């Protein structure tokens, strides 16, 4: 079952903050976050393995609520380089490495 | 050194033809994958191999046949290509079973079937 991301698209000015949500209907082992720029491959940002634990990467952090099967990606003080499509990928407790990706959230940061 | 490399980068062919995409990783990972990304950017897993053994086979037409000669290589052969096969195909690798197992993607192969 594909996780659902929201919002579908976000437009920001440099320096503004954004939150991208990822919600699954199934129990999860982990949640991954990736960013893909136009014409390029998805690039790994972070993995969330424990409920409620926040992980950081530059000015990007994320949380994972196991009980609600939800994860959120927080982008603070956005930069032009943050523009791209963000995907969450969810992994089931079977831990086979199989990721089911959400439909993506397109983020555009303007000067 | 490129961690996950796939060739070719672009593939333009006619319906009915057979084509192959090759992938190699030098990260020492034990698991490799093929993902398909359609025009709406939807990323969908197709296959996964762990140490040359097929472990994930999603509902993919039989025209698609993966082959893994060793754990560093995973190729994808597609028979009788159809218009709907047009997409970007990404190879990826990871080290499964260690908790922290990010996917490392190749640069993708853009397949256009005319």
Textual characterization of the structure:
- The complex is a heterodimer of chains A (111) and B (114).
- Chain A is mainly beta.
- Chain A contains no helices and 11 strands.
- Chain A has strands spanning 4-6, 9-13, 18-23, 30-36, 43-48, 55-57, 60-65, 70-75, 84-91, 100-101, 105-110.
- In chain A, strands 2, 4, 5, 9, 10 and 11 form a 6-stranded mixed beta sheet that branches. Chain A has a 5-stranded antiparallel beta sheet with strand order 1-3-8-7-6, with no helix packed on it.
- In chain A, a hairpin with an 8-residue loop joins β9 and β10 (100-101).
- Chain A starts with a strand and ends with a strand.
- In chain A, 38% of the residues are buried.
- Chain B has strands spanning 4-7, 10-13, 19-25, 31-37, 43-50, 53-57, 64-70, 73-78, 87-94, 104-105, 109-113.
- In chain B, strands 2, 4, 5, 6, 9, 10 and 11 form a 7-stranded mixed beta sheet that branches. A 4-stranded antiparallel beta sheet of chain B has the order 1-3-8-7, with no helix packed on it.
- In chain B, a hairpin with a 5-residue loop joins β4 (31-37) and β5.
- Chain B is mainly beta.
- The mean pLDDT of chain B is 93.
- Chain B is 0% helix and 55% strand.
- The chains are: A mainly beta (111), B mainly beta (114).
- The A-B interface holds A 30, 32, 34, 36, 40-44, 47, 49, 85, 87, 89, 95-101, 103-104 and B 31, 33, 40-45, 48, 50, 55-56, 90, 94, 96-97, 99-108.
* Poorly predicted runs of 5 or more residues of chain B: none
Annotation field: number of helices of chain A: 0
Helix amount of chain B? under 10%
Question: How large is the share of residues in beta strands of chain A?
Answer: over 45%
Gap between N and C termini of chain B: 34 Å
Q: What sequence of helices (H) and strands (E) makes up the elements of chain B?
A: EEEEEEEEEEE
Overall, the morphology of chain B is: globular
Structural class of chain B: mainly beta
CA-atom Rg of chain A in angstroms: 13 Å
Series of secondary-structure elements of chain A, N-terminal to C-terminal? EEEEEEEEEEE
Number of strands of chain B: 11
Mean pLDDT over all positions of chain B: 93
Number-wise, the strands of chain A total 11
Q: What's the end-to-end separation of chain A, in Å?
A: 37 Å
Q: Strand pairing plus helix content of chain A: what structural class?
A: mainly beta
Low confidence ranges of chain A: none
């Amino acid at each position: 079952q594909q996780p659902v991301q929201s919002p579908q698209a976000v437009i920001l000015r440099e320096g503004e903050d954004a939150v991208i949500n990822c919600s699954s209907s199934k129990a999860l082992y982990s949640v991954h976050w990736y960013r893909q720029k136009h014409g390029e491959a998805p690039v790994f940002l972070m993995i969330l393995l424990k409920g409620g634990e926040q992980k950081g990467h530059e000015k990007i952090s994320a949380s994972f609520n196991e009980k609600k099967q939800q994860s959120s990606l927080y982008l603070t003080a956005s930069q032009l380089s943050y523009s791209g499509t963000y995907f969450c990928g969810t992994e089931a407790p079977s831990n086979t490495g199989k990721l089911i990706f959400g439909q993506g959230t397109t983020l555009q940061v303007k000067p | 050194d490129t961690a996950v490399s796939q060739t070719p980068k672009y593939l333009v062919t006619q319906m009915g033809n057979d084509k192959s995409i090759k992938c190699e990783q030098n990260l020492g990972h034990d698991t490799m994958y093929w993902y398909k990304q359609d025009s709406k950017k939807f990323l969908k897993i197709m296959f996964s191999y762990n140490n040359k053994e097929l472990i994930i086979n999603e509902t993919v037409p039989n025209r698609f046949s993966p082959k893994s000669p060793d754990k560093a290589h995973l190729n994808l052969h597609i028979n009788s290509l159809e218009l709907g096969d047009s997409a970007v195909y990404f190879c990826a690798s990871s080290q499964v079973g260690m908790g922290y197992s990010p996917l490392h993607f190749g640069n993708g192969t853009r397949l256009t079937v005319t």
